[in-house]
Amino acid sequence: MNTECFQQLEKVIHERGRMGIMSLLAASPELSFTDIKQMLEMTDGNLSVHLRTLQQAGYVQVSKTFARNRPLTTCRLTSEGKTAFERYIGLLERIVRQNRS
């Protein structure tokens, strides 16, 4: 088995919570903080920390607005985030193919 692929895994995305966030956002153009929190069964604090890490890497854009006089936080992948996630998924697919051979 070629272990070089494992060394190339994007550490920012590879953590379980952040991979979940990236997966959800890759499938939707935009999701609210509340939706992500509920779908991944995370606490506010845990989700906030993971989003901040993804934001600092330039992978996620977080917007704060108001809807019906209530705060609304929405998240979306940046183009850099989409590219990084596609590379990450491609690498995982290579790893799986290697192990099946």
Characterize the structure shown.
With 101 residues, the protein is α+β, with helices and mostly antiparallel strands. The chain has a single domain, classed as Winged helix-like DNA-binding domain superfamily/Winged helix DNA-binding domain (Arc Repressor Mutant, subunit A). The chain contains six helices and three strands. It has a three-stranded antiparallel β-sheet with strand order 1-3-2. The chain is elongated, with a radius of gyration of 15 Å. The mean pLDDT is 93.
Layout of helices and strands:
Elements: H1 4-8, H2 11-14, H3 16-27, E1 31-32, H4 33-40, H5 44-56, E2 60-67, E3 70-77, H6 79-100
Antiparallel strand pairs: 1-3, 2-3
| CATH homologous superfamily placement | Winged helix-like DNA-binding domain superfamily/Winged helix DNA-binding domain
Largest sheet, in brief, is:
3 strands, antiparallel
| Overall geometric form | elongated
**Element string (H = helix, E = strand):** HHHEHHEEH
List keywords for this structure.
single chain, 101 residues, alpha+beta, Arc Repressor Mutant, subunit A, 3-stranded antiparallel sheet, 6 helices, 18% strand
Task: Provide a brief overview of the structure.
By secondary structure, the protein is of the alpha+beta class. The chain is 63% helix and 18% strand. The chain has helices at 4-8, 11-14, 16-27, 33-40, 44-56, 79-100, and strands at 31-32, 60-67, 70-77.
